[in-house]
Amino acid sequence: MNTRTLTVALVQERDHGSVAANRETIAQRVAQAAAQGAQLVLLQELHDGAYFCQHEAVAEFDRAEPIPGPGTDFLGKLARQHGVVIVGSLFERRAAGLYHNTAVVLDADGSLAGKYRKMHIPDDPGFYEKFYFTPGDLGFTPIATSVGRLGVLVCWDQWYPEAARLMALAGAELLLYPTAIGWDPHDDEAEKARQREAWLLSHRGHAVANGLPVLACNRVGHEPSPMAAEKHAGAAGIDFWGSSHVLGPQGEVLAQAGTDAAELLIASIDLQRSEHVRRIWPFLRDRRIDSYGDLLKRYRD
Asked: How confident is the prediction for the chain on average, in pLDDT?
């Protein structure tokens, strides 16, 4: 069987304190990735700043911007300069009082190939996203680019097999997850290990069940909570655990970053392997689509 190799780069970074500093770092990392042959670059969730959803504050909405806008202009210029496809993650201002957590895809010519609005919005200690983000309304539609059809999802979406499956059923060739996930510093080491392993296993499951490569790019480093003076859950800040990774279509680990440092992760993916894997593990063929109606229910009472 022929091979079609795609070189990908994941930019695992910490927050550098300002939009300008973060974008300068991104520009350096994209240049490094392109110099190493990368054709596709994946950035972490909300890469332009800190993970501000650790508290609820109306002033944080000032971070949002329209799409297209300054963020896509910046990424588009980088994509065009280096001839790479870039998947970024922005806080989208759609209208007054209407905001989304939105992934954007810039093709290698700098054009905006498409966007995906995060569908599953969490609301947990330290992750108060429902205050900021309206659930996405663009559905699970792959974005066509010069390197293939990208099934882009965002962070909390990564726990939902339905989202990965619907992207696969729509013809995605890769699943990509810009992510911001980490530990509460007060958790003990055993709990931290369980959480991280569950995250990795979830992604491996998406790869296996759909016969597709999976790319997940996480941020790294400690980010203090704006509520640090308050004594309640989520006020200790977040230790983002990095561990960005590239998986093959049988869940095999092609590359994985460390847990505590910024890193440019480079990997090569044989896109034709999905065809081979799906021939010997034909999950899509054997799905009982006539019997899945209850999946549309919240719960089977």
From this structure: 96
In the chain, pLDDT over 70 holds for what percent of residues? 97
Single out the residue of 143, 141, 145 nearest to residue 110, CA to CA.
Answer: 145
Tell me if 214 sits within 8 A of 203, measured CB to CB. Answer: yes
Cα–Cα dist 244/261, whole Å: 11
The domain locations on the chain are 5-296
Instruction: Specify whether domain 5-296 bears CATH 3.60.110.10.
Output: yes
Tell me the H-state helices in 179-284.
189-210, 273-280
The model carries a pTM of: 0.96
- The catalytic residue positions are 45, 118, 155
134-151 residue pLDDT tens: 999 999 999 999 999 999
CA 7 to chain CA centroid, Å, is 18
Look at residues 281, 254, 8, 245 and name the one whose alpha carbon lies nearest to residue 168: 281
